[in-house]
Design a protein that fits this description.
Keywords: Membrane, Transmembrane, Transmembrane helix. This protein is mostly helical. The chain has a domain of 147 residues. 85% of the residues lie in helices and 0% in strands. About 3% of the residues have low confidence.
């Protein structure tokens, strides 16, 4: 009993108060450390997100640049093909005055190529608007989505039309260069389809990712 009393007597009276005062300080230090750690983690996440966003924008600008560049090329190819098939149609009709229905292939080719002049023009406009949208928020995302879907639809229509004509074309009857140029045009049209729809799908994916990160409301 005396030993216990001596032990209690040896403890300073303000020991409890000092411990009580020390604990809140340690708690505040711990909370500050946690806050700093959370800030560091947020900074890392922001840095990673910013770097990922920059890479994504770079890819978009590359695709938009390709759209803008191939537009005039496709337009030139379609104009050259239209002129050639116009000449072939005129020659066919001159040789078959009584049986002009023989020249239906050439006639259909001329009509198809007149339509095929439109998609490259729309593709150029879509590429430019998409490029501007990566540089300024003045163009709403819905505008680029509508433009991309419309461009993809026009390119799909032109490409399928030209591809369907391949069975009717006889490369032996026409100049070989014309037939090869026709195949090149088909390839460019389906490249345009891929570029346009890839941008539309990307927008959908980005919006879905944002909703998942935001979580349930």
């Amino acid at each position: 009993m005396k030993t216990d009393l001596r032990r209690r007597a040896s403890v300073p009276k303000d020991f409890g108060r000092e411990v009580h005062e020390l604990d809140p300080t340690q708690s505040r230090d711990f909370e500050q450390a946690e806050t700093d750690l959370d800030l560091d983690r947020q900074h890392i996440r922001d840095s990673v997100h910013g770097s990922s966003h920059q890479r994504s924008m770079t890819v978009v600008r590359v695709v938009r640049s390709i759209q803008i560049l191939i537009g005039p090329v496709m337009l030139g190819i379609c104009i050259v093909l239209l002129q050639r098939y116009n000449n072939l149609r005129d020659q066919c009709m001159a040789l078959n005055l009584d049986n002009k229905h023989i020249c239906q292939v050439e006639q259909h080719a001329v009509g198809a190529l007149r339509f095929c002049i439109v998609p490259p023009i729309i593709g150029i406009i879509s590429g430019i608007s998409g490029m501007v949208a990566t540089l300024t928020p003045s163009i709403p995302p819905i505008v680029t989505v509508v433009m991309d879907n419309a461009t993809g639809g026009f390119f799909m229509g032109g490409g399928c039309t030209l591809a369907a004509m391949v069975d009717d074309l006889s490369c032996a009857a026409y100049r070989r260069g014309t037939c090869q140029l026709h195949y090149v045009a088909v390839g460019f049209f389906f490249l345009g389809v891929s570029l346009a729809y890839s941008m539309s799908v990307r927008h959908w994916w980005v919006q879905r990712k944002k909703r998942r990160q935001a979580g349930p409301s």
